[in-house]
Amino acid sequence: MNKRQTRLFAIVGTLLVGLLFLGMTFDTLRQIPKLSNAQDISPEVTLGNKVWHENNCINCHTLFGEGAYYAPDLTKITQLRGEAYLRAYMHDPSKFYDEQKVRRLMPTQNLSDADITGLIAFLDWVSKVDNQGWPPRPLLVSGSSLPGMAAVAPAAADKATGAPGTQATTQADSPIAQGETLFHGASPPCGACHSTAPGVDMAGPSLAGISALAEKAIASGAYKGEAKDAAGFIRESILHPSKYLEPGDMYSAGGTSFMPDTYAQSLTPEQVDHLVAYLSTLK
User: Fold this and answer.
1) H or E stretch including 67?
2) At the topology level of CATH, where does 38-127 sit?
3) How does pLDDT run across 1-37, given as a tens digit for each residue?
4) Which residues are in the Cytochrome c domain (predicted)?
5) Is 20 exposed, middle or buried (0-12, 13-18, 19+ CB in 10 A)?
């Protein structure tokens, strides 16, 4: 290749790459309104965006995996926690920590009800943006992990949720093993809010010793549910989380549990059986 051909190759190549870049840019801009649900940007969402920036939430939290990585990614937080939990948490984060055991990290922002409503609306809008599956899972602080939150291989999660194309050994087919996989792979995953390690309370209480706690609750005079044993109590808690609320707990408000009440629809009866079987082993 002589100098003239080399120069021509460089010029043509640059033009082609430039045209490709412009085409991809135009296509991206064309899809932004649809991908970002721009039509759903309401006055509350706009207010919440303003509250997010005025309180420098980005200095600790992240959206779409971008931010300070000091606190969890909040891209899907409304789907994982729900409005009732978020509203109570934003009003007074100190109620969700045992400051005798751990140092509280989330400051009380003294937000008004209107600001909280707007911020939840903003985060809900963020959660519905088509971000091509990012983040792939709730991101923990600084890439750390908490006891009782072990990751589950995608194939195992597919097996538990009934996805095709997986194979399992006899051990993996056991109800307890499938229940443990569901604990991390259900939608939303139980492990996103609960730990199985003693004393590790998260958005929900630790489930360590749940069988003993269930028997104690049934024996108490405060229990008005229909369960006769620990397994029945656990099943009732999964399908009807507001049926029994521990007196004085911080995981409910106005007689309603912060736990999602959608598992009766998202899980099959067999899957509920598996989850109960696993949780019943947490003596």
Assistant:
1) strand 66-67
2) Cytochrome Bc1 Complex; Chain D, domain 2 (1.10.760)
3) 788 889 999 999 999 999 999 999 998 888 777 777 8
4) 43-127, 174-283
5) exposed
For residue 271, give both structure tokens. Answer: 């899957």
Residues 138, 106, 86, 122, CA torsion sign: negative
Q: What is the pLDDT of residue 167?
A: 40
* CA-based nearest residue to 35, from 143, 113, 114, 131: 131
For the segment 192-245, what is each residue's pLDDT rounded down to a tens digit? 788 888 877 777 888 999 999 999 999 988 888 889 999 999 999 999 998 888
| 3-state DSSP assignment of residue 78 | helix
Q: Distance between CA 63 and CA 172 in Å, rounded?
A: 36
**Tokens (6 digits) for 18:** 């430039």
Preceding omega of 241 cis (within 30 degrees of 0) = no
